[in-house]
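F.,

This is the one I mentioned.
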């Protein structure tokens, strides 16, 4: 194999890792958000009420934070008796603020599955397919959720 071809092949093999590393912020360089840390602790305990309260307060102070809207909708959706109109309102607000928010697209797709709207869930999957240069976790998770949902809908 010629050295130039070998170098090109090595570069093409390494490209996905380099692109992923360039996309992923370093945990040490990114400032920590105490709200997100509190929410992570609450969700780890499945304390959806605490997560919702923390995020309501955070949204009152910072209504233009897409992550807060996304996680607020998520915490409502995961809690008991979710108000799906509120869930959709906050996922859509997250996407209004940040149209490329992959987490909001994934979770919105999952919310659509909760109300039986597979077509809308697949629309979110299609958006994620365009946003993710390589398959990303959000795309993979929503694709699996759709497949699981459709598998449960098959007549037995």
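My design for it:
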């Amino acid at each position: 194999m010629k050295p130039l071809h070998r170098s090109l092949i090595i570069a093409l093999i390494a490209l996905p890792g380099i692109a992923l590393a360039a996309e992923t912020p370093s945990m040490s360089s990114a400032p920590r958000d105490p709200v997100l840390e509190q929410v992570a602790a609450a969700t780890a305990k499945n304390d959806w009420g605490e997560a919702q309260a923390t995020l309501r307060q955070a949204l009152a102070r910072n209504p233009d934070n897409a992550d807060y809207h996304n996680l607020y909708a998520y915490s409502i959706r995961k809690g008991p008796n979710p108000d799906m109109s509120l869930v959709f309102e906050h996922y859509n607000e997250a996407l209004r603020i940040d149209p490329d928010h992959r987490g909001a697209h994934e979770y919105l797709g999952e919310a659509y599955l909760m109300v039986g709207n597979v077509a809308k869930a697949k629309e979110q999957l299609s958006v994620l397919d365009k946003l993710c240069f390589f398959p990303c976790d959000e795309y993979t998770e929503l694709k699996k959720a759709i497949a699981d949902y459709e598998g449960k809908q098959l007549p037995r």
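The longest helix spans residues 3-23.

Talk soon.
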